[in-house]
Specification:
17 helices; 70% helix; 404 residues
Length: 404
């Protein structure tokens, strides 16, 4: 049995699952019991032309489409000597799914006609035809959702409808999304001024900019996100310093990286502020408090602090002789292979600053497993040479997503 044959059988049993990608009420059909699929009048072919706006009355799309779908599946199963679906269950499932889409505006009369026409095609051509129809249905649903939100004056629903709309409908939403992006950028500035976190606003702005897809919107979102992330980092570092925390806030590094992508004077000034709060003050404080009593291997928090101080060329005379101890114990010399030790420090920082909290522990354990294996491999000269090349390659791959 060929792939298309198997696909059609599965599609027949779950036709409405494939029909479930979008949905609103449409004009009722005048016929609730269509003739046999082979005897009915010919239907208009599926078209890529835009679908007319759906009517808002209750639809009987499921009663029109499902009998044709069942007849087609039975016909194709018969051609292949395969068992057809149980009629009652098939029609019930089909009607439930199509009713769901019809309630969302996905089954105006034109789409009903187009889908019925698909079911009348040769078995091998049905799925390709339906794919086009379901794309049209998604557009119809998007239009209905946008128009419905407009009519109800529901701004939040309108934004959500626009964010999930197909690319062909983005133009209808352009003004809405732009207005929302500007409002979120203003809200982010207020949050920074009031000392509140703007992380959630940043996520919203990033999604809006991605939907708009133009350089101007992307730049606006990136600048606002850099500003809010930097403010959060400074506030977090200040609070951590006050309570004597032994770790750097995860967003310190992220804030610096975001600001480095901006070329304006304000970004440079803000970056200097982040470096001051996170590294010149907090990281130095961590090193001053933790290094004197350190015996043996340097814990991650100190490796992170020392790496940050070194990376940003932070000078602090108060460290004195502790600098030599930090250099000896906290330079990330875990395996003795420079490429791997550098990768361990950088990737650890990536996990702590860029990974979602829920996935960090799993990533830490996976990295530790690698470190344990590398330590063993590094006990021989051949092993160290192989590790150097391997860690360079891994760093290049992972660096693309970590922003090194």
């Amino acid at each position: 049995m060929g792939r298309r044959s198997v696909g059609l059988i599965v599609f027949g049993a779950f036709v409405t699952v494939l029909a479930c990608r979008s949905g609103a009420p449409t004009a009722p059909s005048t016929s609730t019991t269509p003739a046999n699929a082979r005897d009915r009048p010919s239907q208009p072919p599926a078209s890529s032309e835009p679908i007319a706006e759906p009517a808002r009355e209750e639809s009987t799309a499921e009663r029109r489409v499902c009998p044709f779908a069942l007849a087609a599946i039975a016909r194709c199963n018969k051609e292949r000597n395969e068992t057809p679906p149980e009629p009652t269950k098939f029609v019930q499932a089909c009607e439930a799914r199509i009713s769901e889409h019809a309630a969302k505006g996905g089954y105006p009369a034109a789409i009903q006609d187009a889908e019925v026409a698909c079911w009348d095609k040769p078995c091998d051509a049905i799925m390709e035809c339906l794919s086009l129809v379901y794309s049209q249905r998604a557009v119809a649903e998007a239009r209905f959702a946008i128009d419905d939100a407009h009519a109800r004056g529901d701004e939040q629903a309108l934004v959500q409808a626009c964010l999930s709309a197909p690319e062909s409908e983005v133009e209808r939403c352009d003004g809405v999304l732009r207005k929302r992006l500007e409002a979120q950028a203003d809200a982010a500035k207020v949050a920074v001024t009031d000392g509140r976190s703007g992380a959630a606003l940043c996520e919203d702005m990033t999604q809006l900019a991605r939907s708009l897809g133009d350089p101007e919107s992307t730049t606006a979102a990136e600048q606002s996100c850099a500003l809010t992330t930097a403010a959060d980092a400074v506030a977090g570092a200040t609070e951590a310093l006050a309570r004597g925390a032994g770790t750097l806030p995860a967003n310190c590094r992220s804030a610096v990286l975001q600001l480095e992508r901006q070329t304006e004077a304000w970004a440079k000034a803000q970056s200097a502020e982040v470096v001051r709060a996170c590294y010149a003050e907090l990281a130095i404080d961590i090193l001053r408090r933790e290094l004197p009593g350190l015996r043996g291997e340097c814990p991650h928090a100190l490796v992170q602090a020392w790496t940050a101080v070194r990376r940003h060329a932070v000078e602090d005379r108060s460290l004195g002789k502790l600098r030599a101890k930090a250099k000896r114990l906290c330079s990330g010399a875990v395996t003795g292979v420079p490429e791997c030790d550098t990768y361990i420090v950088d990737y650890t920082e990536c996990i702590e600053t860029k990974y979602p909290e829920a996935s960090r522990e799993v990533s830490r354990k996976a990295l530790q497993t690698s470190i344990d294996a590398w330590k063993i491999a590094a006990t021989t000269k051949a092993g160290r040479e192989g590790l150097g090349a391997a860690c360079r390659e891994v760093a290049e791959i992972v660096g693309a997503s970590c922003g090194w």
